[in-house]
């Protein structure tokens, strides 16, 4: 149950965000599932409360506000725009996790194409001030750096797409890198299949296998087999480029100290140059708001297990000495999400949320 004290904290936070220039918005507690649920990623999909409505189809209790707010903005919002909101979100939890299934979120979202770095700093600063009484520990990242590195790899479009799809799944991403560099051997069963495909068309192998079992038809199976054969013929990702990926995954320093090595890595993966420029611009914008980038923890791969719609700057603000608590506030950039929900239109966007219930436990 959400206490009156938590609702009062939420009201105070909402007033702060409105004073910063945000327009108050509300979203229905019951949201359409389907395509919207896919945007959240595996973790939230597994934790969403879903139900079937005879008229509206599959629905879900609101797991967060960002996706419906973005959807509403892309349908009829002016730009630039700032929005704020407060209300309950719902997530299924394991029995022994001890986390609430229903809790309050208060958030702030900025849609602004003129100065993305400034908008990043604006949201970080506003949420930092909102939880400043807790003296939070800040940690930042930038998934856009890792995405830029993947896009710059000298390999096939199919391999780059697979790596991008699994950036938010660290174990699968690692397995793909090892496979695409030839570090791990081809499984024996796949090697046998590939040897057969080298001499026999996929359609012939499928016909010889007997009746089809499962949901895929013969054309889909043939396409998959041909894709495997094409991938097997693709040259491995070079050790030099793979080392850059490894360096990015392990880099954990301050925002200021991260910029020079990123520029050095850009010699081997030129796509990292613009990503380093964006990071430097963000560091300067944060400094103008009184945050020292030389003291801000930064790791490019941070946030990979958070919302899958984050594709750039990410941050957390955590209570010091309380590893038992989730972050008090989190946020990030989600430019690609606006393009998905805008059906061809897009606008750079960044936002963050505070959990007032956690503030009451400090």
From TrEMBL:
PANTHER family: HISTIDINE--TRNA LIGASE, MITOCHONDRIAL-RELATED (PTHR43707:SF1), HISTIDYL-TRNA SYNTHETASE (PTHR43707). One of its GO terms (biological process) is histidyl-tRNA aminoacylation. InterPro entries: aa-tRNA-synth_II, aa-tRNA-synth_II/BPL/LPL, HisRS-like_core, HisRS/HisZ. L-histidine binds at residues 64-66, 91, 105, 109, 302, 309-310. GO terms for cellular component: cytoplasm. Residues 17-327 form the Aminoacyl-transfer RNA synthetases class-II family profile domain. The keyword Lipid biosynthesis does not apply. Keywords: Glycosyltransferase, Transferase. The gene is hisZ. Homodimer. This is Histidine--tRNA ligase. It comes from the Bacteria. One of its GO terms (molecular function) is histidine-tRNA ligase activity.
